[in-house]
Amino acid sequence: MAFQEIALPQTPGTTASITERLHELVVTVDHKKLGLMYIGTALIFLIVSGSMAGVIRLQLAVPNNDLVSPQVFNRLFTMHGTAMVFLVGMPIIAGLMNYLVPLMIGARDMAFPRLNAFGYWMFLFGGLLLYFSYLAAPGLSGHGSAPDVGWFAYAPLTGRAFSRGHSTDYWILALLVSGIGSIVSAINVIVTTVSLRCKGMTLMRMPLFVWLMLVVSGMILIALPPLTAAQIMLLLDRFLGARFFDTQAGGSAVLWQHFFWIFGHPEVYILMIPGFACVSEIIPVFSRKPMFGYPLMVAATVMIGSISMSVWAHHMFTVGMTSVGNTFFAVSTMLVGIPTGIKIFNWLGTMYGGKIRFELPMIFCLGFLFQFLIAGLTGVMLAVAPFNWQLSDSYFVVAHFHYVLIGGLLFTIFAAIYYWYPKAFGRMLDKKLGLWHFWLFFIGFHLTFDPQHIAGILGMPRRIYTYDAGRGWEIYNLLSSIGAIFQAAGLLCLVANLLLSLRKGKPAGDDPWDAWTLEWATTSPPPEYNFETLPEVRSRRPLWDLKHPEDPDWKYE
Amino acid sequence: MTPRLLKRLGSLWPGRKSTLPLALATGMLTCTVYAGAPDQVTNIFKPLSTPAESVYQAALLTLAVCAVIFLIVGGLLTYTTIRFRRRAADDGLEPPQIYGSNQIELAWTVLPVLIVFVLILVTARTIADVQNQPAPPDSLKVTVVGHQWWWEIRYPELGIVTANEVHVPASDAAKRKLTFLRLESADVAHSFWVPQLAGKTDLIPNRVNMMWIEPKQAGTYLGNCAEYCGTQHARMLLRVIAHEPDDFARWAAAQQQNGVEDAQVKAGRQVFFSTSCVNCHAVSGTAAKGRFGPDLTHLMSRDTLGSGVVPNTPEKLRAWVRDPQTIKEGALMPNMQLSDKELDQLVAYLLTLK
Predict the structure, then answer these.
(1) Do B228 and A327 touch (CB under 8 A)?
(2) Rg for chain A (alpha carbons), in Å?
(3) Which CATH number covers residue A186?
(4) CA proximity to B122, closest of A331, A392, A394
(5) Are residues A369 and B77, on separate chains, in Cβ contact within 8 Å?
(6) Position A6 in a domain
(7) Residue A9: what pLDDT?
(8) A88 pLDDT tier (thresholds 50, 70, 90)
(9) Which of A46, A112, A227, A320 has its CA 20 to 30 A from that of A200?
(10) What is the pTM of this model?
(11) What domains are defined for chain B?
(12) Into how many domains does chain A fold?
């Protein structure tokens, strides 16, 4: 099967017409094209749901604002949250896994290329289905529009009695469909890493990126099914009169919360560990040292993966669990802090004694380290259950998880884009524009989310479409909204950079960063078959061995 | 910072060098711009009730631990970044390749374990202090029922039903007076949050939750619904009013009276009882026994209308009865399409419900 693919002649963009190229995208089963399609689509969804956040910030900039109605506002934050998690975070991760895992382990493609393509198209149409609700839901039922139940969709607000029309059904079905993309990628990554590694690449010689993605894939397979199950139960409630979550008929509202967070908390780590994966590749290369304590990093990741399965109810400290229940989940949550701390120390250990090059990927990684440290510490505060009784569902939580997902994850995604773009397109991204992107986004991020911690401490709850003056929240909300402008400008620089550098960027060559993993051993962009001859490795840094025959890694590992 | 360092930072700044100090200064200035003290305090760090104080103590310790970790790790990060940057006069050689160190890695595994251990002890103790507090026999018992988007407040032992304001006696050190809240919901999930009094606890349909408060000073404490509950979640405000014990007794006695019957507002009464007002609202001692909306027996004793959306003045009351949707869009009380005359009569009647 793969043989025919390889035999096809290379079509380097210039000769093919647009229809030919589009056709190529539609029928492709190449992991690199699919990876880039995942990332590209996710970036478009990022811009759309980022703009929705912009409207949210505009509405909240001043007290008693009536730019949007409460109904519109509730749809905005529901769509923003849902899209950012399921249509931006997950597919970017799927894209990175798809593009990089086969290259890093010296394989020619994923284990199941066609399944891979199927996953992408399901994700895309699932995403479109979610946004289609804006047009379709009122048209078909006469009332309701996009979902307005929050991305967590707590029962019984989602029941027929409180959510009429079909907006909630769109939410359920869109996520069921787009989730297939994540499941399929996870299965593919597991099978690929288990069975397609090149000669000599034992598990403990895999790049950390691959290790972490393997753990994430395992987590996806465990965490997504509970959500799927709960959503199907909700569908049964809504259409067939089942009473799982129908409290008026004896159903349980708390049951939904358990199901949702059994998915939802591992999901946070599913989103974050890929960020760690990128950082664990980038920091060593720009510090010119191997990853400090590789085995401990692997162990810490597996620990995070397993502990994260037993912390879900820390989202539920206020639902009235017993003191024993609350204590259990506080303890398990704090335990996650230990392997996470180990990771931060190991990255620092990698930088320590190195020669740090301040290239764009590294600059974003430094931003990540600083911000993720704060995100981790506010996470510890939230894990202290009594403190959580005050902080939960306040703007402090909003600040905390945006620190994790933007300050943490998105900064590492940016780092990854600057790091691997030259590999994918053969051209470097512009450094000056990249620095503008960094500083604008960095300032914007802090301006938006730092004040929200204080607003939360001053008693501002989440998900409110407006607020009265006089509680001391005004200045923090105004700063927050100003920050959004900076973030948008930063993002614009990135988009401009991505498009301009496609044609005008400096040619990158095979290995612009003087890196060590296998993807840099092939051309930029890599040919469809990745490697002319499949490589053979003897250590974790095959290209180091090649460049330093006098001092190869395999002598020490 | 040394000038060399500034120069180094300057090389990472994309704009003109002269704009860097400008940008830094603007940032700092913005940070120091600070609105004056708020007139309504809902700060979790200004607790005035026993459970909120227990949380506050645990929070202070947590903050201190986190601040120390931040300073140490942040300091290490800064030091490492600066100290080990590639210098201009680099020899082009790779630095020594270090793969790890068991001792060091063990050290930074054990250290977080110890910190976590301390935090767990504090957490467990505070949870027990707050959650396992038994209700003394003389404590006040209040039932709070969440509705979209208002609060039904019932005092089963006193026979009082009111809305949106929880009146309780203030506690003093010599004679403590605790208030236990039984939390229920009539529709979807809500959450009871008055930051100065206690952490939040959810009101969940088909489930009973308990929490307690012990305000140390008489006064009005503001709060919000803290669980997303639909369209008007934002306008589901809450106030707890703590009285000196004597004042509380007086308030309770007044609330136990039936609705006032004033012959002068007979026309308004007629409007009230002949339209569908009575399907949702109750006035004790009359045929109006609806429970879907707030009890109106002592409407005019309350501070606000629409669960905190506007102050309870005759003008606002009239505007509210005319069309609640202009004041609280999405509220479940419809515009009753009353004529101006009916409206005047009805409001005159409502104003007597003191």
Answers:
(1) no
(2) 23
(3) 1.20.210.10
(4) A331
(5) yes
(6) no
(7) 46
(8) very high
(9) A112
(10) 0.93
(11) 263-351 (2.60.40.420)
(12) 1
